[in-house]
Design a protein that fits this description.
Layout: E1 11-13, E2 19-21, E3 37-41, H1 45-56, E4 61-64, H2 68-75, H3 84-96, E5 99-102, E6 111-116, H4 131-143, E7 149-152, H5 160-171, E8 176-179, H6 189-194, E9 199-202, H7 206-215, E10 223-226, H8 228-259, H9 263-271, H10 292-305, H11 311-334, E11 343-347, H12 362-372, E12 376-380, E13 396-397, H13 401-405, E14 410-413, H14 418-421, H15 425-431, E15 436-439, H16 446-451, E16 455-457, H17 471-477
Parallel strand pairs: 3-4, 3-6, 4-5, 6-7, 7-8, 9-10, 11-12, 11-14, 12-13, 14-15, 15-16
Antiparallel strand pairs: 1-2, 2-10
Helix pairs in contact: 1-3, 8-10, 8-11, 10-11
Bound molecules: uridine-5'-diphosphate-glucuronic acid.
């Protein structure tokens, strides 16, 4: 059936030049194979989630991954990162035959839409490496059938899709390049593709954009059709805004420390205004991951390359860096003004819970600084396993949280994994040498910890002392300075 080609032209052009678009939705559940194969290139979070969900909507999807190890994993219905729900659905759709895997773009010779999801990592010089994306687009110009729509889902600086379209049109004017940025959160990818807040599609050719819109119609999300540059800037703007929101609440946490207020309540009170909202508004160790730090920097660089210095984005990154220093200062102060020879146990390494991703994880930065100041660091995480060069020499990583805290003078909670909240904290307390807990995510039950004799400090709220000095605290005082 002609599911993908049958689009409803109902639309409302707005004065802004943005079009809100409503493709017709087919709820028949019939296979959409006659719409042609959709190719997805790159089996990272975005590619795997996009391919899996499209296949679950009965689109024939072919996921291309050139890395042999990743490809082998996919063939065994496993995914190259931590996301059990996504892995389960991938297994289902692969067994049903709507999702297939390939190692080569050459197999996309009959794909009428190809969605490019390859990485665009930062370079050592601070720019972005678009090499993988350019190579894929180049190869597609050689193998794609007439009229193929190439969708750029990889995060790219505004202007990239238009530039690539210019290059492609020299040899293949029949191909269309469309920007369709992703807004997926790691560990929530499946839900974010199934139920996106919006779908943004940008490009000069209306028919090509509508073809992409029809693919994602089962998500029933608002669809915004616009230019490629606007679509790309929506992506960067959204990430930069969320990162700035986090830096703002972290900045406020400092004010809370200055006046003795509690950031958790302050953020809740401010976020109760629906114009502000409470999501992405939790103070802590700052933002990490492969997106926020990179995208804020890329937008700042884009401005700089055109003679514009963004004070706001600069401040956003600086506050994010400072936040880690502030948390370290709290640990240092609680340990008598020095970290030298102090044992700090770090709970959580991943840049956020629910993932094993360590890219730009605040924990790594903090651990590096603790070690530089002479601290002995042990660390643990339920999912992330750092490789040799991700942590300074001497840092011991153990799987068991109780082993990690044994003999520690202080604990730093760096990632809010739920299992750390439900640890047997009395057991933790009795196995430590000291009694300091610095909660870098305002996540633990502070009052309970204080009852157990811990000195508890969050981010942006007052230090809470146990009523009587604990045995461990007395022992700590006798440590050499
Ligand atoms: C982020 C965006 O949320 C996605 O919409 C976007 O698609 C994605 O980047 C991307 O560009 O691919 P992600 O990096 O998975 O997603 O992580 P988030 O859940 O947004 O968290 C980012 C960082 O901010 C984490 O380190 C987290 O701990 C921190 N954070 C988040 C806070 O410090 N406070 C908050 O209130 C929320």
């Amino acid at each position: 059936m002609e599911r993908c080609r049958r689009v409803d032209a109902k639309q409302a052009r707005q004065a802004t030049g943005v079009t809100k678009y409503s493709p017709s939705v087919d709820h028949s559940g019939e296979a959409r194979s006659s719409a042609g194969t959709v190719g997805i290139v790159g089996a990272g979070n975005v590619g795997v989630a996009t391919a899996t969900v499209l296949a679950s909507w009965k689109t024939q999807a072919l996921l291309v991954e050139n890395d042999p190890a990743r490809y082998e994993l996919l063939c065994k219905h496993r995914i190259p990162f931590f996301d059990p729900d996504l892995e389960a659905l991938l297994g289902d759709v692969a067994r049903q035959g709507t999702l297939r895997f390939s190692r080569t773009i050459d197999d996309l010779a009959d794909a009428d839409v190809v969605i490019v999801c390859v990485g665009t990592p930062p370079t050592t010089s601070g720019g972005l490496d678009l090499g993988a994306l350019e190579r894929v687009v180049d190869r597609l110009t050689e193998v794609s059938p007439s009229g193929t729509v190439v969708v750029i889902k990889s995060t790219v600086p505004p202007g990239t899709t238009e530039r690539l379209a210019g290059v492609v049109s020299r040899t293949r004017p029949d191909l269309s390049l469309v920007s369709c940025p992703e807004f997926l959160r790691e560990a929530n990818c499946l839900d974010d593709v199934l139920r996106p807040a919006r779908i943004v599609i940008g490009g000069p050719k209306r028919a090509a954009c509508e073809k992409v819109a029809a693919l994602f119609a089962p998500a029933n999300a608002p669809i915004i059709l616009t230019s490629a540059a606007s679509a790309e800037l929506i992506k960067y703007g959204a990430n930069a805004f969320l990162a700035t929101k986090i830096s703002f609440v972290n900045e406020l946490s400092h004010f809370c420390d200055l006046v003795g207020a509690d950031i958790t309540v302050v953020a809740e009170g401010i976020g109760a205004d629906p114009r502000i909202g409470t999501s992405c508004f939790s103070a802590g160790l700052g933002f990490g991951g492969s997106c926020f730090p990179k995208d804020v920097r890329a937008l700042e660089d884009l401005g700089a390359s055109r003679g514009y210095r963004s004070l706001l984005l600069q401040a956003c990154s600086e506050i994010n860096a400072q936040q880690k220093e502030r948390v370290i200062a709290k640990i240092r102060a609680s340990l008598g003004g020095t970290l030298s020879e102090r044992h700090v146990a770090v709970l959580g390494l991943a840049f956020k819970p629910g993932t094993d991703d360590l890219r730009q994880a605040p924990s790594l930065d903090v651990i590096g600084k603790l070690v530089l100041e002479g601290a002995k660091v042990t660390a643990t995480d339920p999912a992330a396993a750092p490789s040799g060069d991700e942590l300074p020499r001497g840092v011991k990583v153990v799987r068991d949280a109780y082993r990690c805290v044994q003999g520690a003078d202080a604990i730093l909670l760096a990632t809010e994994w739920p299992e750390y909240r439900s640890l047997d904290w009395a057991r933790v307390r009795s196995s430590m040498r000291g009694n300091v807990v610095v909660d870098g995510r305002n996540f633990l039950h502070g009052a309970h910890l204080v009852e157990l004799g811990f000195v508890y400090q969050g981010v942006g709220n007052a230090t809470r002392q146990p009523t009587t000095p604990s045995r461990a605290a007395l022992k700590l005082k006798s440590l050499p300075e």
